[in-house]
Each structure stands twice: as C-alpha cells, then as structure tokens.
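Hi everyone,

Forwarding the result from last night's run.
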Amino acid sequence: MNRVRRTVPIILGMLILTGFTGFQFALSIQTANAESPQRIVGYFSYWESASLESIKYSKVTDIIYFHIWPNPDGTLDTSVVNQNDLAIIRDSAHSSGVNVLIAAGGGGASEGFPIMVANSTARANFVSNIVQYVLDNNLDGIDINWETEINQEKIDGQDILLSDLSNALKPLGKSVTVATSGEIVELKSTASDYVDWVNVMAYDMNWGNAEHSTFEDSILALEMYHNEGISKEKLLLGIPFYGRDSNTNALKYNEIVSICNPSPSDNNCNDYFFNGIDLVQQKTKYVLDNGYGGVMIWNTGQDVHDQDSLLSAINVILGRQ
C-alpha cells in the first residue's frame, strides 16, 4: 500500500492517540521531566543473533537473554546459548548501566521443572547450578519461564523454587524474576517477597483469536495479579513485538512494517493482529498512570530502528529519549 509514514512526535504538549478500538484519548508528555522509574525489560532470543548489533541499550533498563532450561536432575541445558553473543550483550549492557539476566525455561523447554522441583535434591542442584551460571557469566540474575500446564501443583512448586532462588541469589546482589501467564494467575501472593518483578505475558491470549493482545485484555491481566496480592510496582506488562493471525501463525513486527508499512493507528496487517505504535503507547501510558512497574517486550530483536520503532514509542511515554 502507498502511505506516507507518520513519525512519533517527541514534543511537549498534547499528543492524540487513536487506539485499536477507535476511541481517542489525550495525554500530555512532559519531556522536560525526569524519566519515570518504570522498567523497560527486553527479551533477546538466541535466534535473533543477526540483530545483535542493533540493540538499543539506552532504551531499556534490563535485557533477558533467552534461554537455558532445567533437566529433571537439576542440571542445566545450555546448548542453545551463543556464548559470544551473551558476552557481547553483557559487556555492552553493563557499560550502559543496563542489567542482563538469563531466562530459564520457556515454551517447549519447561518439561524438566515439575520433576526437578518435586525432588528436593534435584531442586537444590538446580539452584546451585543457577547461582554458579550467573556468577561465571557475570550476569545480574535469573528469569524463570516455567511454561507448562497451570495447576495447583505447579503454583505450589513454583513458589518453593522462587523462594529457594531468592534465598540463594539475593544475598549476592542478584535478581530473581518470573514470567507468567496473562490469562490465569500462577503465582501466590508470597511471590512479592521473592521476586524483583513479574513479567506478565499479556500476549498469545484468546488462543486461536488473532486479537491476542488487546488493550482491555492487557489491563485485566495486570489487575488479575494485583488482586491476588502482587504489588503493582512488581508487575510489568508484556507487550508483543509481533502479530498473529487466526491460525496462530506469527509475523515479526519488522516483517509487518516491511509488508504493510502501517500507520501508528494500525493494528492489522493482512489479518495479522499486532500492537502498533498508538496501542503500544496507550498500554504504556496506562502502566505509567496506574503505578505499575513497567513494560516487558517479547522480543527486542523483532523491532525496527527508525521512526516506526515500538521501543522508541515506549520510551517517549516514559520520558526516556
């Protein structure tokens, strides 16, 4: 399609955003103010190695490298980690004052969690191995991505694991974080005592429905965890840098820009529903106005790096230029 792209305005005064539902709202961006305390946490997956040099460290507070995972006996599978990439990210991030964590688990790589956690010896082994991995690689913490069926056994086990990791890592000045479902609460309120923050995966919701990450669903996801007793400042809203269609196929945001050249108000590219600039800023503004801890991105390697950048759009709202 032929369309003149609209840039994201970085000005004082009034910015009118149009959300995907069609309604408009006004917000004031006072760029002269100090930046907000909200975190901007970006996952970077090992398969995005080609975009390594394009990481904008000044636009995030934390990077989570994806991923390692547990074996049932508590040993670590690190087979997909690109050690050179991890070292480059760590050194570049640290020189910019940005923290780097390692993700453990993820979709299709979490089967070892239930068996490991249920066995006290294996669990202790896992915790010890995580501590050593974090120290050996000079990382700033661990992000648990236990993505299996959510039931009470998992909720109880995850609580025990997060407590054990907290007891082992916090005295070393390291962080413990967790990624959770945006549709079903899988944390006990005690998690607020163990974790530094919670990455609420408010995407891939309504499975089989292309609109997998709407504004309304995202807000409900945050409120759901807060109502369970997780403090607002520890809840980060997950924002997708990709789209899905009704067959659950995915399209990266940089591919969407290349194919459809969307305007800021667009959230649909050839029946792939995505979060465009306006919707991303609407979500970020809600996080800011309501005292939540920040936003999380899956994943930074899928962004573009010009006026259409979603990461830059987030930074505008949070006063980080």
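The longest strand covers residues 62-70.

Cheers,
N.
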